[in-house]
Design goal:
This protein is an all-alpha fold and 433 residues long. Helix content is 87%, strand content 0%. It has one domain. It is globular.
Amino acid sequence: MSLARKGLRVFATNWGVFLVRFVAGVVIVRLLGAEGRGTVVILTLGVGLLATVGQFGLPNAAAFLLGKERFGFASLLAAFLVWTVLFSAVVAAGVFAARDFVWRTFFEGVALSPDLLMLTGLWLPATMAGNFVGYLHLSAGRTAAYAWQTLGVGLAGAGSTIVVVTFFGGGVTGAIWCAVLAQVLIAGAATVAGLRRGSWRAPGIWAQLLPLGAQNFAGTVGALVFKRLDNFILAYFWGPAAVGYYSVGSMANESLLSIPRSIGGLLTGKASSQDGAAAAVSVARATQAVFWILLACALGLIAGAPWVVPFIYGADFTAAVVPVQILAVSAVCLGTTIALNPYFIGVGRALLTSTLLLAGGAVATAAAFAWVPAHGPTGSAWAALAGSAVLLLLTVRAFGRLSGVGAGALFGWPRAEFARIRDRVRDKFKGSR
């Protein structure tokens, strides 16, 4: 199966999950208001932030080692599980010790039990393990296994949330419990299946896995800014309700970013198994297609947001329209960068892409602290755009210097590729007659 077809399967999987989560988000907004939605977002992203930090760049490192056939699937997973247990224990102790501070900072005045924070004791390791298994499946080209796991977590979590919140009045607590149990059960099953893929023993695995993970870790910190940290800065200055409004823009942003992410893991595995010249060609072609698809989708989102957002979420969410439009532009910049990053990982230059991500993240963070206090969600969106634009410029320049492939090959109109797709579609219709 070609990279495009595999990517399409991953994209369809991610969008299926996105649509169900979207419906669940609308239900929460309609029944619990912006504050309830914001509280769920903060708790969910808090676990995601911890999981991303705790991964220490190891998923990308494992994808590289798997592509080079240095270690097997099961041995890499077993090593990561040891790391996950250690990190989760440290986090559990830290959350317990500082839970009063965390509660006062983000949730004071919210109708929610402080003990809910301790659910990270279950949620965090399950999220880390599930993300790792899914990424390894993608890097190995096993899109069916990835689809099973992702759909399982998404449908079980969002579907049960809709039922519990709508029919049983579970509120924010019920929504969080649904997400936790879905992640624990599905990710646990995927992890057990992954451990059966071979021997766990792999002498010398830590000597290679940890140094490569450290090279990717700076990029992990930078990526956090574009995916999660802005919500916490906004919550600190404006409270959970503002996060609820901003989450509409974040969801639109994530829906666009699902396009490059649908091929990210696949492209990382492919680039890791090729030499430098072949990897550059593969990544450049994929990036060109991703850019134009993202641009078309972003323009449609920008044009439709003033009507679609109030219709779906209610008139009160008119304040989310401008953040949606700004974050759509940011998604084009960040999504193009996501498509380029597999090249650096595949040729063993993960530290470079990590440095670039960290630089873009620093710009976004500085801008957020400058603009969010005065402008709220809109200021946060502008900060994200500033960081992603700087990141894109730096990444394109670094890619050109390393590969010799200019910006024209990345952003030029892919006439031949789209003509090939058009011809395939025509052939399909002719064959069906």
